[in-house]
Design brief:
Order of helices and strands: HHHHHHHHHHHHHHHHHHHHEEHHH
Main location: membrane
Distance between the termini: 18 Å
Radius of gyration: 24 Å
Protein name: Amino acid permease/ SLC12A domain-containing protein
Helix content: 55-70%
Membrane topology: Multi-pass membrane protein
Strand order of the largest sheet: 1-2
Strand content: under 5%
Mean pLDDT: 87
Number of strands: 2
Keywords: Cell membrane, Membrane, Transmembrane, Transmembrane helix
CATH architecture: Up-down Bundle
Subcellular location: Cell membrane
Number of helices: 23
CATH topology: Amino acid/polyamine transporter I
CATH superfamily: Amino acid/polyamine transporter I
CATH class: Mainly Alpha
């Protein structure tokens, strides 16, 4: 049911969105926190094994990349705050880019982002089973009872993993039929639970865990010593682990992974039409607040403590074996999440480690509905501009939310998840590269929006923040230049250059398929067909959709 009648003459589908402004600054911040966190409660350190290097200032390569990326993302966040202060409408980058650069650029930017996010939802659903299984495998190794072994077997079964994923998707669907106010309250609770799990680990690892006890227990429960694990990793017959001084060849891709990890801290901008109060303040609190809450509790506080307590080389070695040679890794090749480390070090505290694992699962689950909520608003904005049918912009009168789009995007995430099982067998763990490629425009175009707005939308520019000039040039332009000076070299060195090299060193089709380039190309082509097909269809009906892009969307 739509709360507004369609507009037959105006450039937009109707004269009002039907959405309600009821998201507070704090809830918007927690919304963003859930969007970027995923499994960081317990999976925070293990991905350093993808980018092995000796410590720099006591930090792993990924830890360093995360902190540097968080600093670099300040100007990116300021760009979104500047845009939201001028165009506080639902749709985020789609609305900004389509009004400043071009309608097609705005469409393609968010069309590709939609598919990147859908794939990540499928990845997180699978991670929930992996993280939970790791806890129960460790409990079985410690207590050697049939109960814990049966639980670990249950979560390792592909059929059970699929069923669990379907049930979790159903729960996400239930959240989609609540009001925005209730939805953001639930996600705020999820975020608080996640932070509590991080802080609880920080306290126990700092004051309640003995390294000597961990090393003794580890050998007792796994049958191998920590030094043997390190030796195995450093002496693998293929691709042995090496911890050498960090170089840009390692740091560049690590920063790319950090961006993949941090995307989402700006997602409150996509629901700007539902933010209440002072939009500038809400944007500042939600965007930069979530970025630095996440960075501080995880990468500045927790991760260095984990490496310090359990050993830098040992943790890299265990994670490296789990990813590259699981048959040689301890505890049947499980993911050595940080709750497992705590469980081995202090098994009597297993209820606490179970709680930590549970809140990690909750936070991984929360990413799904938050992503879907955000994506539904992008599709809603497309529909308001008549690019996709008006059916997508129907607002439920009871909840004041576009529930139809929520359900459709949720089904997209479920399809990606189920494709990870036979007969398709899609490797969701390899989708990071694919997702980063699909997100390229989302990372790059905001910089051009910042540079072009003062010149292409002068009146709009004067209405918002960051209007002062330095050397005769608006501050917003300088911020856009700074951001592009960071993100363009990262994409070229970490993704584009290896991509080009790979095409020349491998069979073209095989390489394009393995890296996801072929899928990305297909998505872009389909997006172009839909956009220009929509323009043609609307023109035949006497509607010029280009007129909508000359105005700010209705509230």
């Amino acid at each position: 049911m739509s709360s507004q009648a369609p507009s037959k003459r105006g450039p937009f589908l109707r004269e009002a969105t039907g959405l309600v402004r009821e998201i507070s600054p704090l809830r918007a911040m927690f919304f963003n926190f859930c969007a970027m966190s995923g499994g960081i409660v317990v999976l925070n350190y293990i991905y350093s094994a993808f980018y092995p290097a000796s410590p720099t200032f006591g930090l792993s390569s990924l830890d360093l990349a995360q902190i540097l990326s968080a600093l670099a993302l300040i100007p990116y966040g300021l760009i979104f705050i500047a845009m939201v202060s001028r165009i506080p409408r639902t749709g985020g980058d789609y609305v900004f880019t389509s009004r400043i650069i071009s309608p097609f650029a705005g469409w393609l930017e968010t069309w590709t982002l939609l598919f990147a996010n859908i794939s990540i939802i499928g990845f997180e659903l699978l991670q929930i089973s992996y993280v939970t299984q790791a806890f129960f495998v460790t409990m079985g190794a410690i207590y050697k009872t049939a109960f814990w072994s049966s639980l670990s077997s249950f979560f390792s079964s592909p059929i059970n993993q699929a069923v669990i994923g379907i049930l979790l998707v159903a729960l996400m669907g239930g959240l989609g039929f609540t009001s925005t106010r209730k939805f953001t309250l639930v996600t705020a609770v999820f975020a608080v639970l996640g932070v509590s799990g991080i802080l609880l680990q920080l306290a126990l690892f700092s004051f309640g865990v003995s390294r000597d006890a961990f090393l003794a227990n580890f050998q007792s429960y796994t049958g191998v010593s920590a030094s043997q694990v390190v030796s195995q990793a450093f002496n693998l017959s293929s691709s042995p682990l090496r911890l050498e001084p960090i170089s840009f060849a390692i740091l560049g891709p690590a920063v790319g992974f950090a961006l993949f990890n941090l995307i989402g801290y700006q997602y409150s901008a996509y629901v700007a039409g539902e933010l209440k109060g002072n939009i500038k303040r809400t944007g500042l609190v939600s965007i930069l607040g979530s970025l630095w809450l996440y960075t501080a509790v995880t990468w500045i506080l927790l991760v260095p403590v984990v490496f310090s307590v359990f050993g830098y080389s040992f943790l890299h070695a265990w994670a490296y074996l789990a990813f590259n040679a699981p048959s040689q890794a301890p505890l049947s090749g499980i993911i050595p999440q940080s709750a497992v480390l705590g469980l081995i070090a202090a098994p009597k505290l297993w209820p606490i480690w179970f709680y930590v694992t549970f809140v990690a699962d909750v936070l991984m689950f929360s990413l799904g509905p938050v992503y879907i909520f955000m994506m539904s608003r992008i599709v809603f904005a497309w529909s308001m501009d008549r690019i996709v049918p008006g059916w997508f912009a129907e607002v439920n009168q009871r909840t004041a939310t576009p529930t139809r789009i929520y359900v459709l995007t949720l089904l997209g995430g479920l399809i990606f998840f189920l494709m990870s099982f036979p007969p398709v067998g899609l490797n969701l763990s390899s989708l990071a590269y694919y997702s980063i490629l699909l997100s390229a425009l989302t990372w790059i175009l905001p910089g051009f929006n910042a540079i072009l707005m003062p010149f292409r939308k002068k009146e709009l520019f004067e209405m918002g923040v960051l209007t002062k000039r330095v050397a005769g040039v608006p501050v917003l332009v300088w911020i856009g230049v700074i951001w592009l000076a960071f993100i363009l070299p990262i994409y070229v060195s970490a993704f584009i250059q290896p991509l080009i090299s790979g095409f020349f060193s491998s069979p073209t089709w095989a390489y394009a398929t393995n890296t996801g380039v072929s899928i990305v190309a297909l998505i872009v082509v389909v997006g172009g067909v839909i956009y220009f097909g929509s323009k043609y269809y609307n023109r035949r009906r006497g509607v010029d959709i280009d007129l909508a892009f000359k105005e700010i969307p209705p509230e």
